[in-house]
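User: Predict the full complex structure for these chains.
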Amino acid sequence: MTEATHKDTPLVEVIDLSKYFSIGRKSELHAVDKVSFAIDKGKTLGIVGESGCGKSTLGRTILRLLEPTSGQILFEGEDITKYSKTRMRQLRRTMQIIFQDPYASLNPRKTVADIISQPLIVNNIFDSKDKLAERVAELMEIVGLATRLSDAYPHELDGGRRQRIGVARALALRPKFIVCDEPVSALDVSIQAQILNLLMDLQDDMGLTYMFITHDLSVVKHISDEICVMYLGQIVEKSSSRDLFKNPLHPYTQMLLSAILAPNLSRRKTKKGIVHGEVTSPIDPTPGCRFAPRCDYRMEICTKADPEFREVEPNHYVACYKVEQDLGLDSYISGNQNETGI
Amino acid sequence: MALAATKNNKSIALKRKGKLKEFWRRYKKNRSAMVGLVLLLFILFCAIFANVIADEDAVTRHNPEIRRQGPSAEHWFGTDIYGRDIYSRVIFGSRISLMIGVFSAALSLLLGGVLGAVAAYFGGWLDDIIMRIMDMLMSIPATLLALTLVAALGSSTTNLVIALALSNLPSFARLTRSSMLTVVDSDYVEAAKAYGARNGHVIFKEVMPNAMGPIIVQTTQSVSNMILTASSLSFLGVGVQAPAPEWGAMLAEAREFMRQFPYMIISPGIFIIITALSFNLVGDGFRDALDPRLKD
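Assistant: Here is the predicted structure of the two-chain assembly.
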């Protein structure tokens, strides 16, 4: 994959990463299929896609909570896919995850202080209980939880406070990289903004790098530097956040964007490109563009061979024959040798 | 900041010491659990101080002159067909019955729990192998299995405990597996793996506490079940051997005379009921007191 102009090595780089789940005898579910991207230090990459497109699987595979089927994951330039269990455990301090559902991601039998201190205890960070308690109090303060809540159980708190616990737990080991797996989609809109602002403040203060997974375009626009649009396990478009919203190229992205309801009278009559049809099955996919069955601009070639994921404008990558045609790029008829991929 | 830290410091230290206290506070509030605890203590008292509150010689001493006598000041629960003092037999019987019930349930829980936990946590072929073996064991009726094992191992109380434990193994393994499966896939277990927790930590600190509710109940229930199965084995002649005062064996012995001399089955029967009830109530109480989500 061609790299855009980076000053130094990206913190996280993913090359042709795939995760297949075997189903039954011969079938395979292609949850993540040959995905490549890089995230620079201190930046946020947004991953957008509808439910079941493999975005959560992608996040978990990058942290090696799931073993990748193929491909490479480079963390600070080192391939971590071959790391042993012990080595991986050490690396886990630097990469953490924040979960979607703050009701399911906290052990209901532990108090707030217990939950936040677990990562520190497990990794033997402190030798004395006083220092541990001090750090827990500090973490609670950082995420905006009153320390008087340290003895409370998660079920006694509201969703926003619970998610703050999840954030504090992820921060406990001072990670460099955090996968945020839909961290606000289970929360009320007013609370969503609080948590998003908290995450952005933390990024500024600690120089964190985020991979922000969501299905909510307005959320991702708010927080991301770059955005990848995922469809059925593949990235169909990637560009800077600003560029994507101004100039969406892939038909799927266009449909997603037009589905955002704008509080604007003049837009009442604009056509809403509702995505019709159903998501095709990710089990043993046939060659060709996976969005083709639902696409308004479908051409003959779309169902024959995979479109190439290519840079069509500076730092704007798309995998679509229609875009290639529109922009007058040459390869869309002739060169498609990459249909081998299963 | 410093103030917050010291304040929090205090509360965390308190929490560490306070877990037992907190448990007891919650347990106390549950009235039926307290009744169960009192009954359990009563049975334990009988078992521990049997030689103080009853006469050990009277357990096996045959006394044809006073056989089949109803309750009296001298023989509180009456005498049986050989003229033995039923009170002494019931009290000393609590030692045998409790030992059989508790040890076989504990052994069953230990083995079944470990097998079920391994099957649930690691899954895959290990899960298949363990659970298929459990299915095989389950296809043999528990009593028949225990009977065969005792016949093979020879009849002694230890072998009886082993046989009872093995015959109950599959149900423990299955229950542990299924209650752990609901927890193993949860996000907080994944979070623990993500911050680098080892398997042991994940199983014992994250999964077990959340999966143990049904297991506690099953264990306490199986204590009473084991006592009953042991008595039916005694009845078949492979359990506790004849002169030993096992409650089930006493019931079996007195069964023939139930019409004429009902007192003979009432006292061992009541002790079985008290024991079973107390374990069940205490088990339920434990489960509820350990779950912070329940209102207190």
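Chain A has ten helices and twelve strands.
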